[in-house]
Amino acid sequence: MRIDDTPLDVPARPGPFRFRAAHTALVMIDMQRDFLEPGGFGEALGNDVSHLRAAVGPARALLDWARAGGLRIIHTKECHRPDLSDCPPAKRERGLPSLRIGDPGPMGRILIDGEPGSDFIAELAPLAGETVLTKPGKGAFYGTALGRMLADWGITHLIFAGVTTEVCVQSTMREANDRGYDCLLVTDATASYFPEFRDATIEMIVAQGGIVGWAAPLVALPALPAADIPGA
Ligand code: C5J
């Protein structure tokens, strides 16, 4: 597939975000049933999962935009091995959830890879050829091959969406920023159980001249030249 290499600008905060589609990946963070649907990990922690629904439509539109332009797409999944060998006891024992990681729940074992709850919501299911990255932590670089993958693909810029803004999205953006990637957060394609935390996170990211990265709504993204897909 040939992907356009001309520089494109997004009117963003704190200033224009310049990227080339050929060197940019979309990272869709943790759009899993365990976080977005009743009966999963998010609800077991006492959260009102309905707060996350607002991000689903924009996240789907963002995926469609990235697919049409031929961007690399990575869907992350926070989940653990069935034997919990990659789940630190401190994570499992934290708080007073109604169900802990690994416990049986209405969508299978909570936050366990391969269980229905750990899967993506239907609207945001990955397509063939897109990368699914399972991760044991909040940041997507910790304990995964993400850094190696991005280096192999020649990626320099990352566009972020998903849930939750102040936990896994922000953790991954900070990890990426420290590794030298230019990062853009699509503000309406991310959500938190605490809407004020989403808003505060966006401010933290763009403050001090973009200390963590850039932020812009979906509507600010430029039309991408269609990727040249052989045989399409
Ligand atoms: C949380 C996440 N909130 N994906 N995970 O525990 O943000």
Radius of gyration: 17 Å
Q: So how many helices? A: 7
Number of strands: 10
Could you spell the SSE succession in H and E letters? Answer: EEEHHHEHEEEHEHEHE
What fraction of the residues are assigned to beta strands by DSSP? 15-25%
Which structural class fits the helix and strand makeup? alpha/beta
The percent range for helix content is 25-40%
- Terminal-residue CA separation: 10 Å
Low-confidence sequence ranges: none
Global shape: globular
Describe what this molecule looks like in 3D.
- The structure is a single chain.
- The protein is α/β, with parallel strands linked by helices.
- The protein is about 30% helix and about 20% strand.
- The chain has seven helices and ten strands.
- The chain has helices at about 35, 40-45, 55-70, 90-95, 145-155, 165-180, 195-210; strands at about 5-10, 15-20, 25-30, 70-80, 105, 110, 130-135, 155-165, 180-190, 215.
- The strands form three sheets. The chain has a six-stranded parallel beta sheet with strand order 7-4-3-8-9-10, sandwiched between helices. It has a two-stranded antiparallel sheet with strand order 1-2. A two-stranded antiparallel ribbon has the order 5-6.
- Strand 5 and strand 6 (about 110) form a beta hairpin.
- The longest helix has 16 residues, at about 195-210.
- The N and C termini lie close together (about 10 Å).
- The model has no long low-confidence stretch (mean pLDDT about 95).
- Bound molecules: dicarbonimidic diamide.
- Dicarbonimidic diamide binds near residues 30, 35 and 164.
